[in-house]
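FIELD: query
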Amino acid sequence: MSNLVHESQHPLVKHKLTKLRDKNTTPKKFRELIREISILLAYEATRDMALEPTEVETPLTKTTGAILKEQIGLVPVLRAGLGMVEGVWEMMPGSEVWHIGLFRDESTLNPVQYYNKLPTAPTVQVCLVLDPMLATGGSAAATIDILKKWGAPRIKYLGIIAAPEGIEALHTAHPDVPIHIATIDDHLNETGYIVPGLGDAGDRQFGTA
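FIELD: result
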C-alpha cells in the first residue's frame, strides 16, 4: 500500500464504525456517528499542517503558542459528504466550505457533475475532500480533477469506508493526493457497492433508505 494511503487504527474509530455499519442504526444515530468519525479522521489528516508562532497572554504571563498557518477549504461531495462537514468544521471553525455535486450514473458507474459553487480563484492553501464512501473512486477522482483545474495548492481526501478498487483508482488518477480512510473493506459487488460496507451513506443519513 502507498505511504499516502492512511487507514485509521484508532480504537475509537473502529468502535464507532462498527455501530455505523449496523443495519438497525437509526438515521439520527447514523449522522452522529458520521460526525464523530469525521472529527477523528480530521485529527489524523491534519498532523502535517503548517504552524506559525504567536504570542498569547495567560492570566499569569505572556507565552509563545502556535496557530494554523494555512487556510483550509472543506469540499463535501453532495450529498453524502454533507454529514462529514459538521465534525471537521468543529475542529477547524475558520475553514471555508464549498460544494461540488456529483451523482453516479447507475448504468456506467461514472460520475456526472450537476453542481459547482467554487469561487473564481482559490482562497485556501489546503482542500479536504469529504466523501464517506470510496467505492469505484470515480466521484472522488472527478472532484479532485475539478479542484486541480481550479488551482487548489494541496488536496487531501477524507473518507470513512473504501474498497480496494476505489483506493487503486484514486491513487492511479491522483498519486500525489493523500487518502485518509477509517477502514478499507473487502471488495465492490456487481452493482458498485462496497462489501461489507454500510449500504448507501446518503440514504442512511437522510432517512431515504
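FIELD: remark
The helical segments are 11-21, 27-45, 82-91, 138-150, 164-173, 201-206.
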